[in-house]
Amino acid sequence: MAPTQVEARLPGRFDRVANVLVMTVPLLLVGFAAWRAWGGALHWTDLVVLALLYTASGLGVTVGFHRLFTHRSFKTGKVLRFVFAVLGSMAIEGPLIEWVTNHRKHHQFSDASGDPHSPHEHGPGLRGAVEGLTHAHLGWILVGDAVCEPARYSKDLLADPIARFVDRTFLVWALAGLALAFALGFGLTGTVAGGLTALLWGGAVRLFLLHHATFSINSLCHYFGRQPFATGDESRNLAWLAVPTLGEAWHNNHHAFPTSARHGERRWQVDPSWWVISLMAKTGLAWDVVGVAPSRRVAKLAS
Ligand SMILES: [Zn+2]
Ligand SMILES: [Zn+2]
Q1: Cα(106) to centroid of ligand 2, in Å?
Q2: Phi-psi category of 40—alpha, beta or left, where left has phi over 0 and alpha has psi -120 to 50?
Q3: What does the domain layout of the chain look like in residue ranges?
Q4: How far is the CA of 45 from the centre of ligand 2 (A)?
């Protein structure tokens, strides 16, 4: 058992440098991609690879890291647990156990002292709002001042061989996601140049878009939007973010019923991650899917 996975720890210098690189390199390459696209170097194959890998690694985070591993909102077999853990790692939002630990802590302290990424409590006025939103969006990752306590919040995953293995080999899966972008591009075009532009779009551009979609849950979905449920925190539903976040932007619903597998609880609330879980349940690949009893729903409605 690696001691760093068990002890509470502050991110070290290596973590901070890695976090800064993971934020800035895709951003610079997005600029490069835009310039190349302007010059006519963007092919339909690049967009196919981008869409495929955005959806796969995005669902790895939303269905896998979030609904399966963090909140245990459904059960599935070992192979799919492994697959979702790997796909989530390809999103390069940190190793599985660290991600889950930070997110469980967020739910425990939601917008109060101890929440690793609340946009609130950063002072009054416009300045406090801007500072808070910046901190919640990516400041908390770049500054790296959130203590990660897996032994306290993720005992179940520390005892789970699949979660521990994928967590320990995070870098392999992160790089495999980039290699897959190149391989898909190469396979679709038959040229190395096609592989490289697919790597640009299915790698850097995908990571940039996916990261900011996820970050927006922590920042925008605790600041702007509707609060149909009385959750005692600042979580909100932000409809326009539902598609890029694959259904996670129904964030007030989620804070009201954290273990529910379905975040878009109304028929019109688009929730692609729920569609995947629902399909898995119908085909026998998921079971013990957690829902919300109508009486609990009514009891939580904001007056
Ligand atoms: Zn939240
Ligand atoms: Zn959650």
Answers
A1: 8
A2: left
A3: 40-300
A4: 34
